[in-house]
Amino acid sequence: MKTLKDAEVGNYYSVKKIHGSGPLKRRIMDMGITKNAELYVRKVAPLGDPVQISLRGYELSLRKDDSSCVEIELIERG
Q1: What CA–CA distance (Å, rounded) separates 70 from 23?
Q2: What pLDDT shows up at residue 64?
Q3: Could you tell me the strand order of the sheet in which 51-55 lies?
Q4: CB 67 within 8 A of CB 56
Q5: Could you report the per-residue pLDDT of 19-73, keeping only the tens digit for each?
Q6: Can you give the residue ranges of the Ferrous iron transporter FeoA-like domain (predicted)?
Q7: What is the homologous superfamily of the domain 2-75 according to CATH?
Q8: Would you list the domain boundaries of the chain?
Q9: How far apart are CA 74 and CA 41, in angstroms?
Q10: Are 52 and 60 in contact (CB under 8 A)?
Q11: How are beta strands 12-18 and 38-44 bridged, if at all?
Q12: Which of 65, 71, 38, 32 is nearest to 51 (CA)?
């Protein structure tokens, strides 16, 4: 299982599942990170926290703890 925490800069990913429950999962979904959403990893801070992504036409930064709850799959671009 690969999570957003492990994502590589410059790649596109599809969200497969959001782990966790309660307020954290609700907050992540409220930010637009939902199943099958496509996102692009723009950059990662030097110490790996936060991760900056492009999603649904806007930029979003997520903490390492939050990004570890988002299961992703690489989208091959040709």
Answers
A1: 14
A2: 86
A3: 2-3, 70-75, 12-18, 38-44, 51-55, 58-62
A4: no
A5: 988 899 999 999 999 999 999 999 988 887 899 999 999 999 999 888 899 999 9
A6: 2-74
A7: Ferrous iron transport protein A (FeoA) (2.30.30.90)
A8: 2-75
A9: 11
A10: yes
A11: antiparallel
A12: 65
Q: Is 8 exposed, middle or buried (0-12, 13-18, 19+ CB in 10 A)?
A: exposed
- Tell me the helices (H) and strands (E) count for the chain, helix number first: 2, 6
Distance CA 21, CA 39 (A): 22
Locate 45 and state its tokens.
């801070």
Write down the pLDDT at residue 22.
87
**Rounded-to-integer distance, Cα 42 and Cα 23, Å:** 26
